[in-house]
Design a protein that fits this description.
By secondary structure, the protein is α/β, with parallel strands linked by helices. The chain folds into two domains: about 240 residues, Aspartate Aminotransferase, domain 2; about 130 residues, Alpha-Beta Complex (Aspartate Aminotransferase, domain 1), CATH 3.90.1150.10. It contains 14 helices and twelve strands. A seven-stranded mixed sheet has the order 1-7-6-5-4-2-3, sandwiched between helices. Strands 8-9-12-11-10 form a five-stranded mixed sheet. α12 crosses α14. The radius of gyration is 21 Å and the shape is globular.
Amino acid sequence: MKFDTKVVRSGIHPDPTTGSIVPPIYETATYVLPGVGQDKGFDYTRSSNPTRQILENNLAAIENAKYAVSFASGMAAVDACLKLLKAGDHVVCGDDVYGGVTRHFDNVLSAYGIEFTYVDTTDIASVKSALKNNTRLLWIETPTNPLLKITDINAMVAIAQTNEILLGVDSTFATPVFLRPLEFGADIVMHSTTKYLSGHNQIIGGVLATNSDSIYQKMKYIQKTIGAVSSPFDCWLNLSGLKTLHLRMRQHETAAMQVAQFLQSHPKVSMVLYPGLESHPQHKIATEQMTGFSGMITFELNDGTEAGKKLMNSVQLCGLAESLGSVETMITHPASMTHVDVPPQDRRRRGLTDGLVRLSVGIEDVEDIIQDLEQGLSRI
């Protein structure tokens, strides 16, 4: 079955009771058992639910994974992954990751005795030098949020396997349409399904995918025990959004390339980061390991922070919003929004300046998106 067909059909079958082509929403807390010690595969929705199982089967198929485990949010998925560790363990983490991940690692998990070191994962030597005897996990994003750095997954797999540590990859920005890290040898791939995988700003969700039987069993146990599960209705909405994932992502990419080229040529823009541009520092790696460049753009204006704020307060079509990866174009100021909890000195050291603007290009007509940005830039 080819990828586009998997997206639409894999794991999804007509309802055996009615023939409904759309899977039902099993909005139930519990299930009546045929007898003591017997069930029909389900006993309590925190443990398992038919709608959630269909979603997990579909997500596993499009990620080319044996297993997928669905959670109530991307951060719940990240937290579940870190529960594979114990006090005294060490994690090497990319230095440009979603601000909520940094907040969780530094302000919550570090209190439980897990140690974190942040490095630029585009620098292979830095990753190697950060390893310790107690390192158990290498955690990367590619492309990263918000600087859109591209990490060489083959190199990270080699490091992880040589040192017998786990490699976890947050592939939210790329989606399985453009990148499938498990095919490179990664142990775990994570997505915030809130973003492109649902695509319509309707739900909060997360997923972990793996080919490892032992990791899957641990993830299912954590999912059941902690209970941070996605609701049946959210799973149903996610399934509906997934059916057009391949089409949406190609439109996101086509529009983003045009918007990036427009911004790159604009006199008020000092820097544009988009993996599809030849000017991107890791463009060559992106072209080698990705089949497309997604819809995220980061840029900075000549006049810095104040210019960025003026732009974001002037656009009309582009929504000023925290999220990304939806059909609507959204614009964000990372320093005051998504990464506000990262200490300013750490943000700036990593290259996340106060004037940086992140743009999630939607699937509207690209001429309207560019026109909106142009009128906003004219007000600076």
